[in-house]
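User: Can you predict the 3D structure for this chain?
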Amino acid sequence: MTPPAAASTPAEGRNDTLLAWFFVIVWGSGYLASKTGMQYAAPFTFLSLRYAFGLLCLVPLLIVARPAWPAGRREFLHVCVAGLLMHAIYLGGSHYAQYLGMSAGVTALTLATQPLFTAAFAHHVMRERLGWVQWLGVVLGLAGVMLVVWHKINLHAVTVSSLFAVTISLTSITVGTLYQRSFCKTADLRSSSFIQFAASLLVLAPLAWGVEGFVVRWSWQLLASIVFLVIFASILALNALHILMRRGHAAKVTSLLFLTPIIAVFLEWIMFDVVPGWLSVAGIAVTCAGVALVSARRRQ
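Assistant: Here is the predicted structure, written as structure tokens:
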């Protein structure tokens, strides 16, 4: 099963495939890295540290590469809005939902519905037409994810507050992904990352201080999770997603998010010896089939 690629040449197609798998693996690993980091700092504090470190990492890159900055105030505001949706609000909501007691299974399952909402939004608003095969793939992907994370679902841990937080997170990543594609088509991804990290830090740091007291228990595990999430997830993987969104179909690209819980389950098995049950294995097969259908070329 190959992730979608919409490149015009075989070489570009192979590059898109590598970018797609890189995104899936890193994004799936991010669940475990975030879980580790939040053992030492509350969600808003953890994210503030993450984006502060991200800014430090980007400074030397910007000095050497000297990328183009937004041409005017309008483009700058578009970049900021996309960044707040995809960084501050999305991660703030999902992290805080778990902090309030929502299980990782319920959180993962809720956020895994994003490709379904993206497909519906792109179909009705952006006029991206999906055939019945693609719609079947979206539904199969969601069903597969449900099977994969079913053993981790604890509905007793769901509260109104945590459900509200994860719903905000889901809405933000769905709208933010499409917003970035629609209004930031020509923005340089390097300078955009810096602007978006800074905007997210300006929003999250006051919350970390006022709500959580900015309490941090420093450890090498915390630092390692921040380094991984900043360099590999927030910079490299998210930019890979943006590149793929610019080149391809929104529903096809976001269907890759169905695969991230599978990566998380696999890594949990390797790192913590948590053996997936037969239901999870069946879910992996169903999810891969769903992504393959979404990625299939629609007959003209």
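Residues 10-295 form one domain. Confidence is low (pLDDT under 50) at residues 1-7.
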